[in-house]
Amino acid sequence: MIYKLADKLAETGNLTDSEFLSILDCREPEFSGYIAEKARAVREKFYGKDVYLRGLIEFTNICKNNCKYCGIRCGNKNAERYRLTEEEIFECSDTGYGLGFRTFVLQGGEDPYFTDERMVSIVRGLKERHPDCAVTLSIGEREKESYQKLFDAGADRYLLRHETADKAHYETLHPKEMSFEHRIQCLKNLKEIGFQVGAGMMIGSPGQTTKNLVEDLRFLQELKPEMVGIGPFIPHHDTEFADCAPGSVEMTLRLLSVIRLILPEVLLPATTALGTLDPQGREKGILAGANVVMPNLSPSGVRKKYLLYDNKICTGDEAAECIRCMSKRVAGTGYQVVHSRGDHIKFAK
Ligand code: 5AD
Ligand code: FES
Residue 325 has what pLDDT? Predict the structure, then answer.
């Protein structure tokens, strides 16, 4: 029965709510392998054996928000704060370029220092230095005019996880100053402007149910993002969720496969959080349908300060080591890291 549902999902790209629930609730270990195989077939149809690289530059851990799960929330007085200069960001990109990266992801907290003017200058500078590279921004909620300026400056993609598509659940994870509606509106604005857009959620965040995850799937079907970032929730010791259980690797892998089947052409990373909870997590992610990895390009001096959750991996490695390690890991799965921009098929030039 459950195997028939995976067949139906692979054939039609859709299921009813209760069928999705059965797939997420199924505890049979063999089922994960079965649905992963379906997901791999679909990803190979569109992207072959290629795994795309994104160089992640964590350029500020200063944040005005106080998300309850996050280690760099403004209320965490123990976090040691830093901000890279424009020049340092450019240096990271030059190092990355030499290592074969053709996408740079600028990720940071919602740091008011990085006004539109400053961000536009950074995006322009990156594009001037490396015109053959894609620039992805992951800098949180901003107004539509601001997103438009960043797009006009040359930014290609934007990542903004919706975190959960259930308003009540969203409100238990965020302080009351933050608005679920605003976050969703941001994603719609980004789409309208023409970015390749990434949404996504944490798996196993406190209070999350499999019903909530079905709502996430429906949301993704409606938004049709070009990228979906998912990873297990991992507690951070300086948050009110310090004692909560982490999300499950199994459930994350199951969702990677399901997302590949509902959005066949999506760019889907095997995330650092997955690699943090399981030493083979990213490899398993690739085998479950993921086709992107995001090695860290941040300067080694600041890596231990960008801690969204505890025990984060790759915080002690230089960029060159990280990329070597990652290429080896990917090769071990039978897939291969490629050095192209790795655009979504609909945006490929
Ligand atoms: N565990 C896992 N992922 C987290 N994020 C933030 N805090 C945590 C945590 N404790 C994720 C959020 C955010 C992304 C940058 O990192 O989904 O959007
Ligand atoms: Fe960073 Fe392995 S991927 S050290």
Answer: 94
Q: How far apart are CA 258 and CA 151, in angstroms?
A: 31
The domains of the chain are located at 2-342
Q: How far is it, in rounded angstroms, from Cα 221 to Cα 61?
A: 32
Residues whose CB falls within 8 Å of the CB of residue 22, separated by 6 or more in sequence, listed in order? 2, 5
Position 252: which residue type?
Answer: T
- What residue's CA is closest to ligand 2, atom 1? 322
Q: CA–CA separation, 53 vs 50, rounded Å? A: 10
> Mind listing the pLDDT tens digit for each residue in 58-104?
999 999 999 999 999 999 999 999 999 999 999 999 999 999 999 99
Query: What atom in ligand 2 is closest to the CA of residue 321?
Result: 4
Residue 91's pLDDT is 98
Q: In the numeric block, which tokens belong to residue 201? A: 């959620």
Q: Which CATH architecture has domain 2-342?
A: Alpha-Beta Barrel (3.20)
Q: Are 236 and 205 a contacting pair, CB within 8 Å?
A: no
* pLDDT of 317: 83
Closest ligand 2 atom to Cα of 317: 4
Mean per-residue pLDDT for 186-215? 98
| Cα gap 267→226, rounded to integer Å | 6
Query: How far does the centroid of ligand 2 lie from the alpha carbon of residue 281, in Å?
Result: 12
Ligand 2 mutation pick, 58, 274, 315, 325, max ligand atoms within 8 A of CB:
325
